[in-house]
Structure formats: C-alpha cells, structure tokens
Amino acid sequence: MGNMMERNDTDFPVPEGRTIVGEEPFTFHCHAGVCCFLTCCHKVEMYLYPYDVLRLKNRLGLHSAEFMHNHARIAEGSHPYFPAVMLNMANTKGYPCPFLRKNGCSVYKDRPSACRTYPLERAVEKIPGQKTLKMHYFMTHHPYCKGHQEERKYTIRQWERDQFLNEYNLMNDLWAEVDAFFATNPWQGEGRAGHRQQLAFMVCYNIDEFRAYCNHHNILSRFRLRKDERRRIKRDDAELLKFGFKWLLFVLGDRRTLQPR
Ligand code: SF4
Ligand code: SF4
C-alpha cells in the first residue's frame, strides 16, 4: 500500500500482525481450488487510493462523482488533515464486495491496489536527502487465507509482475508524496470544508470533475508543458491525475513542480 512513513533512528516499523518480506521468496498461491476462495472479498475494510478510483470508475463506465457516490465513503486517514476514502461493501448477506460475482472478481484487471498486493502490504519510506523512496513489503497472516499453505514461490519482483503492480505502485508513490504534503496542514486555516481542501479532494478523487475544471479555467495553458505531454493529459485520466498532483503541490505548496508560462 502507499503509506508514506517517515524514517526514524530505529528499524522501520513493522505493522502489528505482519512480518517483513525481504529478498527471499515467499510461499503463496491463490486459485479457484483453495477452500477459502473469495472469502477475502467479503466484509473488507479497504482504502481506495486516487488511482484505484480512476481505474474502477473507467472500468465501470461511471463518472468519478457517480462512482464515489455509489461505491465509496469518507473515512479517517493516516493523519487528521485530509480524509481517506474506503470502498463500500454491498449491504447483503456476508457483506460481499459489490464487484464480486459467482465466478470471481468482475473488475479483476482494474481491481484496487490492496486486492492485487494481498497477501502483501506495501509501504514507502522517505529518507531525508534522497530523491527516491525506499520500499517495504510486509506479509499479512490472516488465518482464513489458505493460500499460504500452497507450494508456489514468488519473489517480490515476481509478485509485482504477476499482479501488474508496477503502474499502481508508481501512481501510489506519487499520491503518497501528495498525502505527506497534506499531512503538513497546508489549508491556511480554512479547515476541512474549505475551498482549498475541496479543490484537492476533487483532483484526487473526482478526476472527471477536475478535467471539466481544467477546461473551464484553461489550467493547462497556464503552464509550460511539452506538446506530447499536453496531448497525453488531454486524453488520459492517469496523466491528468499526475498533472493534478503536481498542480496541487504547485498551487498549495509553492513547490516548483510546474513551470508557469
Ligand atoms: S475488487 Fe475484486 S478482488 Fe477486490 S475485493 Fe472486490 S471482488 Fe475481491
Ligand atoms: S483468502 Fe487468500 S487464498 Fe483464499 S481467495 Fe483470498 S487471497 Fe486467495
């Protein structure tokens, strides 16, 4: 997962109930033959990151506002200065994920980061003075998950390739940087319902609305962008989200993430 943790002088903190996964391969296999198949798609407390929302709303053919209204709720985040978003389970017997069907996940290619990373969890660490983030993986140990007793082995790299995690990790790392900035309370006293925070929430979780906002206010034309970059932003939501992250850091944090014209 994309939690940004600050380094301290001791070892990196291992979340409760997890073990750290290093270079050594781990044993795990999830397939339709395990007796627990799809157990983990019920009653899940799952955070959705901005890129998760973007992929799911496109998969479902929904406007991002409609996706948020139908499937998500606001929750407490890892800090008090910006809310988190969680996926709503269906209000039916066993509280299944709304995307679960008899034969499995109906949004598999676009399933959220947490689903594709499981049974691992991912955290990134910001090391002062270094540009790149340090990554940590932890193994969860839920007793209901029998995939741990299977024989297949993976290294972390193999798991990332197998689950097509790289695009998700890249976007979640960009998001972690923005969320770490939000944790500094950059709202200039406006508080939760203020204009700045609403703008930030729109960029992160309502990309269709942000596209309309950019068009209405000619936001792209205010910055020096390469032609190909501008074209990509205009047709691709993920590129717009990357631009949106930079724009938030620029307008709210006075960072030199974009060059004004
Ligand atoms: S999105 Fe798919 S994999 Fe994730 S909990 Fe829902 S049904 Fe399961
Ligand atoms: S509980 Fe574990 S093994 Fe069972 S379906 Fe979920 S991830 Fe796969």
Strand order of the largest sheet: 1-8-9-2
Distance between the termini: 36 Å
Overall SS class: alpha+beta
Oligomer: single chain
Q: Number of helical runs? A: 9
Biggest β-sheet strands, sense, barrel: 4 strands, mixed
Structural notes for this entry:
The structure is a single chain. With 261 residues, the chain is α+β, with helices and mostly antiparallel strands. The protein has two domains: 3-165, no CATH class; 181-253, no CATH class. Helix content is 37%, strand content 14%. The chain is built from nine helices and ten strands. The strands form four sheets. It has a four-stranded mixed β-sheet with strand order 1-8-9-2. A two-stranded antiparallel ribbon has the order 3-10. It has a two-stranded antiparallel sheet with strand order 4-5. A hairpin with a 7-residue loop joins strand 8 and strand 9 (134-139). Helix 5 (166-182) packs parallel to helix 9 (237-253), helix 6 runs antiparallel to helix 9 and helix 7 (207-217) crosses helix 9. The longest helix is centred in the middle third of the chain and has 17 residues, at 166-182. The chain is globular. One iron/sulfur cluster binds at residues 41, 44, 97, 99-100, 105, 107, 111-112, 115.
